[in-house]
Model the fold of this input.
Amino acid sequence: MLAERVKQWTQEWKQEGLQEGRQEGRQEGRQEGRQEGRQEGLKEGLQEGRQEECISLVTRLLRRKFGIHPELDLALAQLPTVPVEKLEDLVEVIFDWTKISDLTEWLNGDNFSGNNT
Done:
């Protein structure tokens, strides 16, 4: 009778240990998932903010250089599709351009090369 009772207690303890282990594992997994999600969200948010700022800067520079023109507005509408790194390149080549069509050519060029001056 005592041996049966000890065996029963042992099985109960094993079950409780397994349940506690599973719960702790789930909690740790959730915490790690949340942390990774926050980091990924922060990274994406920073990238989006950088792109928005580049677009804003390019828009201001182009409007100051060429004024307000329908042709310019059409070209500016394409900027959200341009990668941030290329927008940064665009800031530099703007100063070499003399007409709005230079921007259009740059946007239509291969890989936004920035060499269409």
User: Anything to note?
Assistant: DSSP finds four helices and no strands in the chain.
